[in-house]
Amino acid sequence: MKQSFKHALADSSFSIGAEIVGTRGIPQSNTNFISLARDLLADERINYVSLTDNPGGNPMLPPDWTARQLADFAPNVVIHLACKDANRAGLESQLWRYAAEGFENILALTGDLPVDGYPTLGNRVFDIDSVSLLGMMTAMNAGLPVLNRKRKIEHLTPTSFFAGGVVSPFKSRENELLPQYAKLLKKIRAGANWIIPQLGYDMRKFADIQRFLEQNNAVVPLIGNAYVLTKGIASLFHRGQLAGCVVTDSLMEQVEKHATGADKGKQFFKELAAKQIAVFKGLGYAGVHVGGLEKPEAFFEIIDTAHSYSQDDWKEFYAEIQYNKPDEFYFAPSEAPTEIPIPKNTRKRFFNVSPFYRFSRLVHALAFHRGRGFYPIIKRLYQFLDQQKPLRRCVTKALHQIEYCSKFFLYSCADCGDCGLPDTAYLCPMNRCSKNQRNGPCGGSRNGRCEADDKDCVWTIAYDRLRHFEEWERFASAPPICHNAALRGTSAWANLYLDRDHSAGQE
């Protein structure tokens, strides 16, 4: 009997999984991707299949439909669950359905920006992010506490989710990469049992993740990511048209060179994937996730090729597969996994540290830093006003209007009532981030630009600001944030001073 995905990661075996992409529209009786999944799961060389959730932001058949066709292989099915198409209530409902049907392996994703819909593009959801989704599964595993009809807390039946997360290491700039790693730590603290990196072709980046986790005493199985390219797909990745998937100029040159051959580069692409598998095994990864193929024979050929290499060949492949960008930033600047902390502040000039930001910090220190400055006095004022008397209600409303007008003018405030300005270096995450990210960046930025390509990534700017004042470590260790939508349209000042927002209980 095939070992379950969960138990395979727990022991010393090297697990190999296959990515299965669904379709848009009603599948036919001879659906290829279902047959592919079944054929792969029937073979001992494949431990699990991984079912994608609307990759690229396109509406598709949901992965749980595919999972139900593979119900007899449930312990070896990994379902991707993205936050882009449903709010937290919808995501919880989906998780209850997965638990009821026996599917426990869930990969938590924030998700790609939607690019299509009927009849035109719909609203983005992104009510919560992958960190909060992992926290939800952790709470469900412990027995989710809910209010019953008698307004008393009861704990629901615990689930057994084996949740995973994603990290995107293929960022060439320090202010893009280290926020990714900080969010990785938050995912692990939120309950991620395993991690899979996004897609790229620089094996040193995969080793870089290991060194970061070792330095931060974070022990979690890592699953490598290998995708069998074609010239068309490589061009798509090279242009940045699939968020988080990176093909650099140097690799694209090799792709174009080999694509002119008689086999259109097929042998090169297969060997590249096989060599990646060998490197992941040599590095000590718990397994590998292989995608880009439509026939089981192609998967088996690549796996058998990877197994045919000698024990130390991976070291040569590691040096060979380093298709990086000029001046690529790595957490570990050397090849040896030495103890290297998150970089401290240097004399480097940070252009994002403006006089306006310094002014915002000063105001925060005087009025909004818990227990300091004028905070205790203002807190008592709001406690006095928080009594349902007509005159006091009028004063509270007037203060809210002053707050909103000033913050809208200064920060483009979205009036969410659960303010994230202090957490994001005084950049409104509800307005400045296309996905409203509160716990760090998504994986979709490219060269410092938002996935939507309409602005700079808010987290690169926040990193520059926080690092300048040597506060990045504090952000990286801060508890996850899940904003309270019930506070929308209310005073964030009042909610802060009355301990109603996400910062309640923090000092």
Q: Residue share in helices?
A: 40-55%
Report strand order across the widest sheet: 8-7-4-3-2-1-10-9
Name the helix and strand elements from N-terminus to C-terminus, one letter apiece: HEHEHEHEHEEEHEHEHHHEHHHHHHHHH
Give the tally of structural domains.
2
Mean pLDDT: 92
**What fold name stands as the CATH topology of the largest domain?**
TIM Barrel
Tally the helices. Answer: 19
Which percent band covers the strand fraction? 5-15%
Characterize the biggest β-sheet: 8 strands, parallel
Short description:
This protein has helices at 5-10, 32-41, 63-69, 88-100, 130-142, 174-190, 203-215, 231-238, 249-259, 266-283, 296-308, 313-320, 355-368, 375-385, 390-411, 429-432, 458-468, 472-477, 492-497; strands at 15-20, 48-51, 77-82, 105-109, 145-147, 153-155, 162-167, 194-197, 223-227, 287-291. It is an alpha/beta fold and 507 residues long. Strand 3 (77-82), helix 4 and strand 4 (105-109) form a beta-alpha-beta unit.
